[in-house]
Records
---
Amino acid sequence: MATLKKKLQGLVAATLTPMTENGEINFSVIGQYVDYLVKEQGVKNVFVNGTTGEGLSLSISERRQVAEEWVTQGRNKLDQVVIHVGALSLKESQELARHAAEIGADGIAVIAPFFFKPWNKVRAEEVLDGIQDKIPSFQGLKFSDTDLLDFGQCVDQNHQQQFALLFGVDEQLLSGLVMGATGAVGSTYNYLGKKTNQILEAFERKDFSSALNYQFCIQRFINFVVKLGFGVAQTKAIMTLVSGIPMGPPRLPLQKATREFTDHAAAKLKSLDFLSTADLKGRNLGACI
Amino acid sequence: MATLKKKLQGLVAATLTPMTENGEINFSVIGQYVDYLVKEQGVKNVFVNGTTGEGLSLSISERRQVAEEWVTQGRNKLDQVVIHVGALSLKESQELARHAAEIGADGIAVIAPFFFKPWNKVRAEEVLDGIQDKIPSFQGLKFSDTDLLDFGQCVDQNHQQQFALLFGVDEQLLSGLVMGATGAVGSTYNYLGKKTNQILEAFERKDFSSALNYQFCIQRFINFVVKLGFGVAQTKAIMTLVSGIPMGPPRLPLQKATREFTDHAAAKLKSLDFLSTADLKGRNLGACI
Amino acid sequence: MATLKKKLQGLVAATLTPMTENGEINFSVIGQYVDYLVKEQGVKNVFVNGTTGEGLSLSISERRQVAEEWVTQGRNKLDQVVIHVGALSLKESQELARHAAEIGADGIAVIAPFFFKPWNKVRAEEVLDGIQDKIPSFQGLKFSDTDLLDFGQCVDQNHQQQFALLFGVDEQLLSGLVMGATGAVGSTYNYLGKKTNQILEAFERKDFSSALNYQFCIQRFINFVVKLGFGVAQTKAIMTLVSGIPMGPPRLPLQKATREFTDHAAAKLKSLDFLSTADLKGRNLGACI
Amino acid sequence: MATLKKKLQGLVAATLTPMTENGEINFSVIGQYVDYLVKEQGVKNVFVNGTTGEGLSLSISERRQVAEEWVTQGRNKLDQVVIHVGALSLKESQELARHAAEIGADGIAVIAPFFFKPWNKVRAEEVLDGIQDKIPSFQGLKFSDTDLLDFGQCVDQNHQQQFALLFGVDEQLLSGLVMGATGAVGSTYNYLGKKTNQILEAFERKDFSSALNYQFCIQRFINFVVKLGFGVAQTKAIMTLVSGIPMGPPRLPLQKATREFTDHAAAKLKSLDFLSTADLKGRNLGACI
């Protein structure tokens, strides 16, 4: 693994894996996807093959290919390309980790196996305690729970800023920031990165009132889609709609978002000024979603 | 129910119900308890007969007596005395609500019955929507979950400040404040009210760095006791230790905190400067806990 | 508590609490209810004020009145009237237990408080171990889980037949019988008691093939209503339909069964020969449900 | 996939995957394992690469090798070798299924992906309904839940004996048999197959009293080890102890059973006459576990 030149900070998009209508990976649009994140959303870090990327629905061979494509396309454009290498089989995780190092990824992330698992829940702050002694290359964690006692105590341990502590609950990012998050990883940053950067900027200049207003706008959208049923399939539909890049359907066992969902989501995005009619010009929504 | 003169704000202590060694209610120390909260902890609102007060372990007759004693002792000293009237039987809730009005309590709070319950989880922001049409005297809610999307959307609805939106997760109060909480209800405010008021004050003057430091101090304590096993019994032991007012054991099915717990908690409180040796002068800890 | 003359055995109906349309208890039909159970369903034991009876939705005073009415109406007709006295407040459980003894109930049953509860799950077979040393009047338990390792080990301990071990999962009664249950408590025995007695009889004469067939018939009905949404409200609607005795609506927070549910359930009962057109003669279904 | 000559019936051992001390697969003892199952335990069917076999902790390549070894060693000795091919990635499941057919396995079994999953729980009896129209080669299912309403309704549908309905909760096998199971799959059949066959035989000749006694003996053992903490690691230790064939440690994230566990389990097995001193003659228990 290459030494990290700088700490991961700011927003990290948990990338989707674009697919063709028959469920094969559509590598051809990943270059366009990189440009869209950087230019349109102001997001320069990606988290590849995670939950949003359907990493665990891909074969090991596919995960390697997807990782390679992001590293290749992101060169000189993205700050950091982090590859998720978690798998139920630790042997496969190790293989993916070695591969990520070989191709020059900026980092790896890993979830522990979860079919067999330890009998006791371990909290993040306990894992963090002394971890660089065990894993010298350890750089930080993505915290995707709302237990801010645990997250806060991770931050409390991080007094020398030795770790990147990335918050992973997009809809309440502000609560992670106030508790000391150094960045954030999430699926909504694919299409709401620009809006979310406004939260980061307002927070940075201590304008909490504006930060909260931006957060509420984003919450209104998430709250709306959560009630309709919101997951990776729906994220693919929204990203296709907003970016114009076809993300395709999810792979089974997920089911494609319904047309009804997409119509409702589009209307909500427009009502919140997250999507302009100009953005949609020339797009055949029926075809691309 | 008396009309509320002013919105409930700031800290609200979820009061313990003091008991004698054989599990009967010790009404005699409630006056002293009121003075301690006001003078030593700077807390002028109480939430009586809730979880912390073992309300559901008391008989209806006992709940009435406890409510009366707090209203009586709190007169001209406390800002608001809120009585929790939730019960599995709605008939009993109604009886308790009428009683609270008769004795001049400042408000009631209620949890829905939870043995039989609706098939679908309803979110707080959905409950809040239009509630003053259905319950004209509705004043606000205590939100004791870490789902800040839901809480945020409650705040988002509250643009006319028509509701008191009280956050109930002490160990991450700051995340509730940044999301727009107008106050907080919790069991730790019995003995950490003064420390917690420092968070409120720092937040008010936009000194987020200090607010976070105060929050971390409190988290260190809560994190410590949570790992030892922390509930109402342990809160009684800690409050006895810190305030010097005997809270007694909890009522079955809860078990008294162990001496080992209390010793560890006392050591931690001292190490965090939450408890001075002077505080403990002349107290027979072995006897009072 | 009166000494039990004989062990509780066979079927025990978990009784419904009949209510008027406005949610008050309809004591006037309990006598008729007793006669129906004995004569039409062949059920001579009742379990009063349990979940099926909405015991925890009643006030303590109502629970006493309901218990008295069942004891009075059941005299010389029922074998055993067991009163459930569980409550969140142990003081109230104790009051109800004393009352049950005073009115001459044949036994009490109790669930442990469940708002505050022990930290570790305790299995029934552990509770049973040595219990008569602690509670000399202990007679047995109602086991309402599908964990038949636990239930089997209760039976394994019961080699001197000192306990009544009653199985409480109606839809798989046969599995409880083969594991050694000495009887059964359930809500379906109100209206399927006669059919269920056929299982008991076939099992007794070792005709397992018939026992299984009877069990499957009952499963077809339960499977059908479970998919529609099945609880106490729906049980009240079915019992009203089958017995002709008006059970009324449930008390809030439960909602009355829909007309659609009742129509579907009635059609299913007829298709399974659990309800004949003759049974329904002269009943105004629209009015009585 | 070869056409199944006969329905799968009787006991099926969910096989362990023998490993060396450093966590590599120990293929060399699988032949001996086959002979042990057939000759010492009277078990002639195996279920390979399931939970007990740590299938999901193996790489795809390892799963193929393990499957091949069981098919090869089982030829002319075992009745049926069933390969579990479930994986989080359906692509990988498909690859494993094709491979199983190529090597001449007698059948495959599969769990659905469980990281992403459908929003609604589907019951087994609903899955079974009309399944042979969708999957003409479908042969049956392993039911590993204690919900015998669902299992019973599967049996109820199986009136033409078109399916093998195998029960998978070893500790309550008798309840599955009475509900109509046609066989059983489990980890305890590796070392308690002979004892369990006594249940099957007693049940077959309608000697329910003996069947229940045999079941209770097995329950006493399982109940004992469950309280100590019982999983695949512990099963490996017990199988090593009883069979004398070294199963080795589990692969991470599981941890090897403690020596204390093995000592307690051995003592219990002896006290139940499940293990004789003669069985242990010449074994260096310290070394082999």
---
Amino acid sequence: MSTKKFLLEEKDIPTAWYNIVADMKNKPLPILNPQTKQPMKEEDLYPLFSKAASHQEMNTTDAWIEIPEEVRELYKVWRPTPLVRAYGLEKMLDTPAHIYFKNESVSPIGSHKLNSAIAQAYYCKQEGVTNITTETGAGQWGAALSYAAKAFGLELAVYMVKVSYHQKPYRRSIMQTFGAQVIASPSMSTKAGRKILTDHPNYQGSLGTAISEAVELAMQVPNCKYTLGSVLNHVMLHQTVIGLEAEKQMEMAGEYPDVVIGCFGGGSNFSGITFPFLRHKLTEGKDIRVIAAEPASCPKLTRGQFQYDFGDEAGYTPLIPMFTLGHNFAPANIHAGGLRYHGAGSIVSQLMKDGLMNAADVKQLDTFKAATMFAQAEGIIPAPESSHAIAVAIREAEEAKKEGKARTILFNLSGHGLIDMAAYDQYLAGDLTNYEVTDEDVAKNLEELEKIIG
Amino acid sequence: MSTKKFLLEEKDIPTAWYNIVADMKNKPLPILNPQTKQPMKEEDLYPLFSKAASHQEMNTTDAWIEIPEEVRELYKVWRPTPLVRAYGLEKMLDTPAHIYFKNESVSPIGSHKLNSAIAQAYYCKQEGVTNITTETGAGQWGAALSYAAKAFGLELAVYMVKVSYHQKPYRRSIMQTFGAQVIASPSMSTKAGRKILTDHPNYQGSLGTAISEAVELAMQVPNCKYTLGSVLNHVMLHQTVIGLEAEKQMEMAGEYPDVVIGCFGGGSNFSGITFPFLRHKLTEGKDIRVIAAEPASCPKLTRGQFQYDFGDEAGYTPLIPMFTLGHNFAPANIHAGGLRYHGAGSIVSQLMKDGLMNAADVKQLDTFKAATMFAQAEGIIPAPESSHAIAVAIREAEEAKKEGKARTILFNLSGHGLIDMAAYDQYLAGDLTNYEVTDEDVAKNLEELEKIIG
């Protein structure tokens, strides 16, 4: 039994976020105004987001964006996070591979989401905003933002996807304990919610619908902004602290990863762990593989299509260039609520299109098998989302074993699963199933999308 | 908003546990064989515990006991834990006091219990034991031991107090995910369980009953030992890593605590944080106050009686010199399941008797009020158990404010409450109540005890 954590000091918390767009030869296509189909400008985003976030969203030139001192100060509550050599898992798999994971589960909220929540709440506060709204899937983002909102004295309303609202009541309670208002989505409190409930009375919600509701509320309340936990460029930016720390820690370990893996919903933790490593590929031609691990039931990167689509279900957001299954795609009720999203953000979609990264899909039962192995080997119960990354890391380690070759694998443990135990219960009882979408489903959905957007 | 963590490096994980008994002028009274009423010897404990644990239990001479390298290695999974200056809470209370907390909630299991679980599992493995049993209240100890048992390849059966089994199903799932067998106590699987279920068919269990069941099973299964998460001297010993680290960290902070606070159930986290500081009082006459924070509904230190009593409900254990409410005391169903125990271990009881420490009781509603304040101020949702310590720390800070004087307060955050959110829900909904025992209840219970034990 041996254990190796690589620990940084507080002074090593990055002082700047890494903006990968500045280093991309092919920049992401612009987001478009859905009415005019013209590229949107920074100012067009001001009604929705803080000015600082809007500026970051559109910044294509500065590779490094300074982290405000107040944000770094709050990062110190739990950052830097450990990088861990997963000796236990290596032993269990009897693999020559070296497996490392960045442990973002040590945040007080249990996931990486605080990295952007603190930044977004800070900017809103700076600009005199008093109220914010957001959506949340499994509740990780909502819980993080609830704490960040409280820390900066902002009022927060969270639309929580209904299936998760019931599957994960404890995350709802966490948000309420921090003083946030939580509404199950779809709800009757918005036009978007009422419409989908009228069309599909038993619809259990999706991130796309919850975003519509949160956006709608933000537009109606005075001095209120909307915040998003994933998909957008500024969120990816804030999450790069994960990979920037991991870069230094891999150096401490004296290794460089052959492959870097993150689970993939809207892309926040994936971008966080991988972009700082992709930088070496973009700027120095470094040979490194990067893999997005997505659910087989929501396979936008492996089976979706690259095209303009809405970020939300009701069509309130700008048109985003994305790998998408269609904003009208209704994902199955898997326990990895944070990955139930129809599309990928514009940066990741461009990287994918340019062959700079890969994607792999994982079935629900395989994720729980991987999660249980990891828990028993490393003592940490992973979030169902993170378990997708673990499953792909295990695949990589098994391949290395077959080849009889060493391989250095790094994945992001984006969160712990202590509040997802009902899912583990079902798995242990044999009550969980796999969900897969058929090619026909995907094709049909995308055909409908063509009709809406063209 | 400012944040200050005091962090140690892995090399600073203590290399020896501190055995306070060696420094006590009045040693704890010996534990007695209930039949003969004669002091028990180390060998008398071998049928129940590992030899190493039995030896530690009886060691009254060595102040320092070396921590095995394999145990230190596993401690590195999460240790050293941070010491945090609670600036947020200080600001919220507008107090001149300086409040520090040792954050044991960062363990992958979410509490301090791993400190002893790893040591006990290690010793059992070393001695060729294959099966272990235990009891658990809220499930923190059971979860910790489940991981430790898996790490050392031991089979584990856990008797979980029935009220917690239902209140905290996620902790049951965590144990099962690590591969442990979990039985709600009282159960029909033991004589002790059957007896109490016959007498009180709806009894929701207590730690005392669960201990009886776990001990009974351990005596019946070949090559099986019993392990306990609190009360006993060797458990207190293992937990001293908490205070030993905190001692160094308070030095880093350039302060020395005026008062050290731990919540109190059987004494494990309390002893862990306080004994290394009490050492300065015992050996150098240092002026320091030490407070055990216990539930008003289970007030053994504030209202119990010092006398010999059983450690369990059925009377299977040796007689222990303890402050007790009587082993037949049925505590109210408060959410702080880990504090629902009738007595204090022999070391703490002797310290209490000699006036070397104090105790304070806290009502359930006050603990949740304190917990919510702490969560909003510091971003960490505390366990209901730990919230007793927080409530007393807040009292101390408020007193300091009244006096207009600085005061340095240190408390142990023994665990997080992410799995106790159902309790927070009830609190937020106004559905929680206080439970108190009357003086008559206590007197009547102790009278019965006299009849049994004399």
